[in-house]
Design brief:
UDP N-Acetylglucosamine Acyltransferase, domain 1, 11-stranded mixed β-sheet, alpha/beta, about 350 residues, 2 domains, flat
């Protein structure tokens, strides 16, 4: 199935500079062969390293790498610390992504439909579709051109996949799920399971049928063992370009905008709305039925309650504006000393009263 191959080709430093539209500084080693990108401590004379921001510059002095990629404006500072070529780019992370994609392309382990897969006769497979062993594609499902369905995956009745989607092993898509183009789901992802909808009735929990579906936009990536529940009456939706980490729970009726990022172990309770560009750290929880405004930053381990204005920065549980949270944490650290001081003052006051 889809996997990262070994280096498909070797590039020279000159080819790398052209690939990332970089501006070279320092010695010309354009013909030198590049083996890959490495961390500072593990780079050899055939590796490229990269500096994300000025805080990492001092680490250049200890590196034996072939060349270093730095953000625009840092080339002169970098040359004082590093003897090799410096390549200046607008965004080092994007440059590294381009290099790795070129060196380590995704390839399929086989082509066509594996003989151990089960594909219903009414399912429609586009051109170039790959289906792995043990996969099941149910009736009326549609899989777009160049998509890959990994070993043990389940594509339910009427589910649709756009073009160039990748479902890694043991992914399950329930009935009512629709994927856009280039959606990447890692192993163990479950999309379209029933939302957690129950009503208390005479001391028991009465199940409310969950009849909505799930719609996932183009270029969404969802990490291993994450779950996206179907809506109760309407669809749960995830906007184009959103990235979701491992072990994330998206509850029923959630509406997630475009370009959001949700880190591992976070959970969105039902009917949470994330507007475009929301960034969540790890282990964030939301109370549900709330709107988190566009471009909000939510710090790790935050507990979010109530609507959040666009462009906010929040932290803590229950959440606070991040500046108030930082002051509160500072005050909390001083509590033991404050308690000792209060006790000393109380004892002093008691002795004064006795006198």
């Amino acid at each position: 199935m889809a996997r990262r191959s070994r280096a498909a080709e070797r590039l020279t430093l000159g080819q790398v500079i052209d690939l990332i539209d970089g501006t070279p500084h320092g010695p010309d080693h354009g013909d030198a062969e590049v083996a890959g990108v490495a961390e500072f401590a593990h780079a050899t004379a055939h590796h490229i390293i990269f500096v994300a921001d000025q805080r990492r510059l001092p680490s250049l002095g200890d590196s034996e790498a072939l060349a270093a990629i730095v953000p625009e404006g840092l080339a002169n500072d970098a040359q004082e610390l590093f003897d090799g070529p410096i390549v200046e780019v607008a965004d080092p992370h994007s440059a590294v992504a381009a290099i790795l994609e070129r060196l380590f392309p995704t390839v399929a382990g086989w082509s066509g439909v594996h003989p151990d897969a089960l594909v219903d006769p009414t399912a429609r497979l586009g051109n170039g579709v790959v289906v792995g062993p043990g996969a099941v594609i149910d009736a009326s499902a549609q899989v777009g051109d160049d998509s890959e369905v990994g070993p043990g995956c389940y594509v339910g009745h009427g589910v649709t996949l756009g073009e160039a989607c990748v479902l890694h092993a043991n992914t399950s898509l329930y009935e009512g799920t629709r994927l856009g183009d280039r959606v990447l789901l890692h192993s163990g992802v479950v999309v379209g399971a029933d939302g957690f909808g129950f009503a208390r009735d005479a001391g028991t929990q009465l199940k409310i049928p969950q009849v909505g579906g799930v719609v996932i936009g183009d270029d969404v990536e969802i990490g291993a063992n994450s779950c996206v529940d179907r809506g109760t009456l309407r669809e749960t939706s995830i906007g184009a370009g959103t990235k979701i980490d491992n072990l994330v729970q998206i509850g029923h009726n959630c509406q997630i905008g475009q370009g959001c990022a949700i880190s591992a172990l976070s959970g969105l309770a039902g009917s949470t709305v994330l507007e475009d560009g929301v960034i969540m750290g790890g282990n964030v929880g939301t109370a549900g039925h709330q709107v988190i405004g566009a471009n909000t930053l939510v710090a790790a381990k935050s507990g979010v309650h109530g609507d959040i204005a666009p462009g906010s920065m929040i932290a803590g549980s229950p959440h606070l504006d991040i500046r108030k949270w930082r002051r509160s944490i500072g005050a909390f650290a001083k509590l033991p000393e404050l308690i000792r001081r209060v006790r000393r003052l109380e004892r002093t006051a008691e002795r004064s009263d006795e006198e």
